[in-house]
Amino acid sequence: MINAIIIIGSIAFFLYYLKGLKNAKINAKIIVTIGMFSAISYILSMIEFIKYPQGGGISLFSMLPTMLLSVLCGNTIGITGGLVYGLLKLLNGAYIIHPAQFLLDYILPTMLLGLAGTFGKEKKSKVILGCLFALALSVSMNIISGCVFFGDYAPEGMNVFVYSFLYNVSSLGVEGLLSTIIISILPLNRFNKALNLSGNQ
């Protein structure tokens, strides 16, 4: 039942994404920008400071480019960048035991980072709120995956949700918070002028 709910929810999100993609202004510059940001995310993900025994850990701000892309160019472009980044991560191999688990671990988390631009970029507070919103959704996917598919890894006597929450928040959550802090101090106006992509949502 839970697997069906996950897949149905994923389909709903993809439909939301495709609707936005249909209305987005995609040109060669946008495509190159998405590819560049996604490639940077992938490269940064391979530089790990801390690696956890069951997978995951803290890498060199691999979430930052996808969230920044969303803030600068809008959610649709950000989600597209997250999708490309997620697919690139598969090059390192994937541990798949169910289609729902594949979506929760490898596709949805990076795509949801593309919602960082939800509240706009006019004020730093909105940028930070958008990044935290996207981060919360992204990490939630990994937490759900841990509860549903990897509960056997929880230490004896520990609640599965508590284990998955601590495992993912202490790794992905920390990395995402650090990425959010960096984005909050970046000169976003200069980035926007350099890319000249405002208006692409």
From TrEMBL:
The keyword Transmembrane applies. Keywords: Membrane, Transmembrane, Transmembrane helix. It comes from the Bacteria. The chain crosses the membrane at residues 30-50, 62-88, 127-153, 165-188. This is Energy-coupled thiamine transporter ThiT. It comes from Paeniclostridium hominis. The gene is thiT.
